Amino acid sequence: MYEQAMSKIPLLISRSKISTEGHKTGEWRFVTPSFKEKTAPCRATCPVGEDIPRIGMIASRGLIKEAWETIMAENPFPCVCGHVCFHPCETACNRAFLDESVAVHHLERMIGEAGISEGFSASVLKTPSNGKRVAVVGSGPSGLSAAYFLSMLGFSCDLFESKDQPGGILRWGIPAYRLPEWVLQNEILRVEHMGVRIHCNTRITPERIGEIMDNYSALFMGYGHGRSVTMGIPGEEMAADGLDFLLEIRRGNLPAMDGIAAVIGGGNAAIDVSRSLIRLGAKPLIIYRRSLADMPAFSKEVNAALDEGVQIMETAVPVRIEEEDGNLMLRLQKMRAIGKDPEGRSRVVPDDSAPINLCVQHVFTAIGAQSDGILNPKEEGNDRAIPLSHSMFTLSKIPVIYGGDLTNAKRSVSDAIASGKQAAMAIDTYFHHGFDAIRERLNVSRVGDRDPLSMAIYLETDRASRSPKVISYSDINTDYFSNTPRHIPQTIPMLRGELSFMVKEPVFSLKEGVGEASRCFHCGICNDCDNCRIFCPDISVSCVENGRRINLDYCKGCGICVAECPSGVMELEEEQP
Amino acid sequence: MKHREGVPDIDYLYPGHLACPGCGAAIAMKFALKALGPKTMVVLPASCWGIIAGAYPQTGLKVPVMHTAFATAGAAASGLRAALDIKGDTETTVLAWAGDGGTFDIGFQSLSGAAERGEDFIYACYDNEAYMNTGVQRSSSTPYGMRTATTPGTSWKRTRKKNIVEALAAHRIPYAATASIAYPEDMIRKFVRARSVKGGVRFIHILASCPAGWRIPSESAVKVTRLAVLSNLFPLYEVKDGLHYTLNMEGNRPVRPYIRMQGRFSHLTEEEIERIQEMVDSDWALLKEKANCKQISIK
User: Fold this and answer.
1) Over the stretch B157-208, which tens digit does the pLDDT of each residue have?
2) Are the Cβ atoms of B15 and A534 closer than 8 angstroms?
3) Residues of B with CB below 8 A from A530's CB?
4) Which of A242, A302, A468, B272 has its CB 3.0 to 4.6 Å from that of A448, i.e. a possible disulfide?
């Protein structure tokens, strides 16, 4: 019945047979979107150039091993740095404009501890051996880092250390409450697993240098500053050396102390000595020639010291130490500021007041260290020398590279690691492309237009095409990030008298770490959110093997993909006529 | 490559369609068809989409489309549904897809009739708040304060936007909801829900920005609809059987940034924006009261 009825009614409904794909609506466009990954401010500030936004992105998905490998591409010491790095990345973090910066150091420490407890191996990053041998002098952070990266690049490394255990400043200069020994032990062990041979109790004398030059292809000098600077005042011999004191503590000698201990200096060593003293029962008093704001110590460390009860006397210098009734009489001259020095710190001169006498039980000096040097780069008279940001490349019989504290303007663990990495790149470039290529190859391996060098960029494995533009807060679409406070691992409450040499700050749980990583904006890198494809009104964004592609035949250039990109990866450019 | 959960991968739009750059209505259709899939027939009355879908013999959609007269989306969809039923095809979903003119004004009678009869189709209104296709003439969906071709200069529209969801809810239809192109997962979930609900017309009211008519840069088309939601000016909610309200999220931003980013409101003084804020606040309070405040599920 139905068919019969239908067959009798002529249905003249016109039917479309072709699609609108014949309209190449791309012709309407006058601006063109494109994908261009950019540089995150954290990474551009990180001395070792860690790919922090990628680490944050990977960790937010719970992929801790992959996050760890991403760190290891740039830094052999995730856990050490998670503990001791002064994390300039967090100061640069764009998230601070929304709520609080991402707790990168807590995250790094969690990933680093997972690397140790899970026994992750970095040997996947190793390239095949190139048959060349490099000698490394000094097993501090710069030497270990140089050896690690040289091994990664296929060199065979011998590392020489004068003391009985490797680690340098990490082992002898940083107290255990900042860096536990097991962390150091395990991360050094992993450098050895890369194939580095560490020779302890081997002091390198000038004669040994000759031998090394005969037997090795290159030499890295990273023996650092092991000898304390002296004050040159009467009675100085009654003061104890701060660095020796820290070393004794790391050796396990924990003398009970009491009374007032004056600590001369304003750097991290002075803080470390004071915080160690308070743990042993003394009442430390830091005496610093300039004002508190001028102290070269990291402000986080200064604040921690003040919290623990360390006292600080500003603008005073010792002029004499005398013994008096079994105590020490410290004579101090008060100073006053007259303008600034070129580094922006106050310039001080003695004021007109009479010297103060201070009765103390101990005096420690921590006013800085110098190299107990074997060779001095400046005295070598090499006409073929390249001063680099974190090292000095010189060419004598073999390439000799100086690094670490010997050359670094900023003496931090991260800068020392950066130095070892730079040296490894310079050596590798020298053997592959020659002396003249070093500057250029290092220049293109920089993160953004800044100083940090990236091994991943050097090896051109990863994101070498990232634009040097550093993402600012205005590039982020904050509609996609809601206010979430920074995760803080619960600090174990401790009373003042209970300070110990244990690390006080607990580590993130996995859940806290993943939660904190999710706060990361992933500045400048694609996090696969798919917004560009989802919101495209013109079905012109598609997924391809290595990301996404824009079909310019149909893209009308509306720019929604660019506006809705949370991380500033996309950009619009005006069409050229 | 990660695809987003809650957003089906396949699109049923062809590129080359004739929407303006940054068209919110195109994005709305994209999401609706992602949700409804290939077993869908679309009824298009006169509207922007009558153009976007392409002139004969072209089509911009991978599913069948029936173009129909301005006033008849509700009636044509009823007829299409009946024809499918006669053929024994109960699987195909009929989607009436009309603009605000075809819904709030010209097509209101046929929609109201179909809703009252309890017809089985989804009616989606993509609302760009004026007759954009013919040159931005005011409709009864045009909001207070907007300048259009027919409310120009100092004669900008001084009456309120018609509350179409309330009007449809009053028909006691099984499902009515609002959606915004800035919230794809939410919109897709609502279309999937509308497809499964039976027993009458399912109505979805979508705020779909129009860069040309709203006088905004085309790249802000999504952002502006997000701000409408975040300021509670266009709240996301669902009404079951015309009685049971569910609020999907609560915004916490003032309306000022939403108003100030659009050229169509550029003549408004701060006092007038304050008046809009008061209207939004009282509408939101009323809506919360209807939802009995208990069913807010913020996603």
Assistant:
1) 999 999 999 999 999 999 999 999 999 999 999 999 999 998 999 999 999 9
2) no
3) 2-4, 7
4) A468
pLDDT-derived band at B127, boundaries 50, 70, 90: very high
A537–B27 CB contact, under 8 Å: yes
Handedness of CA A159, A162, A165, A166 (dihedral sign): negative
Output the CA torsion sign for A82, A87, A92, A98.
Answer: positive
Domain tally, chain A: 4
Same domain, A166 and A280: no
- A179 has a pLDDT exceeding 80: yes
Q: Is the Cβ pair A16, B218 closer than 8 Å?
A: no
- Cross-chain residue pair B15–A21, CB shorter than 8 Å: yes
In terms of phi and psi (left: phi > 0; alpha: psi -120 to 50; beta: otherwise), the region of B285 is alpha
Which is more confident, B6 or B204?
B204
The residue in chain A having the minimum alpha-carbon distance to the alpha carbon of residue B182 is: A535
For chain B, say whether A23 makes contact (Cβ under 8 Å): yes
Decide if pLDDT at A382 tops 60: no
| pLDDT the model gives residue A408 | 85
A253 and A338 share one domain = yes
Q: What is the H or E stretch that residue A191 is in?
A: helix A181-193
Banded model confidence at residue A367, pLDDT cuts 50, 70, 90: confident
Residue A559 near chain B (CB below 8 Å)? yes
Q: By residue range, what is the domain housing residue A53?
A: 41-120+468-517
A305 and A270 assigned to the same domain: yes
ipTM surpassing 0.90, yes or no?
yes
CATH number for position A548: 3.30.70.20
Percent of chain A whose pLDDT exceeds 70: 94
Q: Are strands A346-350 and A316-324 parallel, antiparallel or unpaired?
A: unpaired
Q: Which domains does chain B have, with CATH numbers?
A: 24-290 (3.40.50.970)
Q: In this predicted model, what pLDDT tens digit does every residue of B130-142 receive, in sequence order?
A: 999 999 999 999 9
What's the pLDDT tens digit per position in A50-66?
Answer: 999 999 999 999 999 99
What whole-number distance in Å separates Cα of residue A77 and Cα of residue A40?
21
Beta bridge partners of B58: A18
Residue A450, domain member (yes or no)? no
Closest-CA residue of chain A to B24 = A537
Same domain, A233 and A364: yes
Mean pLDDT for the stretch of residues A122-133: 89
Burial label for B277, CB within 10 Å (0-12, 13-18, 19+), is middle
Give a three-class secondary structure readout of B160-200.
Answer: CCCCHHHHHHCCCCCEEEEEECCCHHHHHHHHHHHHHCCCC
| Judgement on whether residues A390 and A417 belong to the same structural domain of the protein | yes
Number of residues in chain A: 577
Please tell me the distance from the alpha carbon of residue A339 to that of residue A332, in angstroms, as a whole number.
Answer: 22
- Chain B contact probe: residue of A535, A549, A551, A561 with most B CBs at under 10 A: A535
Q: How far apart are the first and last CA of chain A?
A: 64
Q: Report yes or no: A479 at the B interface, CB cutoff 8 Å.
A: yes
Residue B205 distance to chain A (closest CA, Å): 19
Q: Which amino acid is at B124?
A: A
Encoding tokens for residue B56?
A: 């004969």
Residues A314 and A342 in one domain: yes
CA distance A70 to chain B (A): 19
**Using the beta-carbon criterion (under 8 Å), do A530 and B14 form an inter-chain contact?**
no
Q: How confident is the model at residue A214 (pLDDT cuts 50, 70, 90)?
A: very high
B69 vs B102: CA distance, rounded Å: 9
